[in-house]
Design goal:
Blueprint lengths: L4 E12 L5 E5 L6 E5 L5 H12 L7 E5 L16 E3 L2 H7 L6 E6 L1
Parallel strand pairs: 1-6
Antiparallel strand pairs: 1-2, 1-3, 4-5, 4-6
């Protein structure tokens, strides 16, 4: 039995500043959502959860990315590009991380 884990969702855009650091700029109107995701969730299932939560139509472009906790990004820190999720194996890898915040790029 796999216990779902809480994941925070935020909508916005990743930006790389002049010093090479990646920063997520959340949409000011988005307060985020807390969802429960199974460790065995498929990419398609995760996409459905996000589209339902944000009321996004199937034709709306959607990109999913995250940064692991900073202590896991050594030695580059937040100069490490965000990790984009495009398939189920990447969802499973993401779900093994502690303190997960998933950033969404969509309309």
């Amino acid at each position: 039995m796999s216990t779902p884990s809480p994941v925070r969702l935020f909508c916005g855009a990743w930006r790389r500043n002049d010093d090479g650091y990646w920063i997520f700029q959340r949409k000011p109107s988005d307060l985020g959502y807390r969802v429960l995701i199974k460790p065995t969730e498929t990419f398609e299932g995760l996409e459905t959860i996000i589209r339902d939560r944000y009321n996004l139509k199937p034709e709306t472009p959607l990109s999913l990315a995250y940064h692991p906790p900073e202590w896991m990004l050594e030695p580059e820190g937040t100069r490490t590009p965000p990790t984009t999720i495009t398939k189920t194996s990447e969802v499973e890898a993401m779900m093994r991380l502690p303190f997960l915040v998933l950033r969404i790029i969509g309309s």
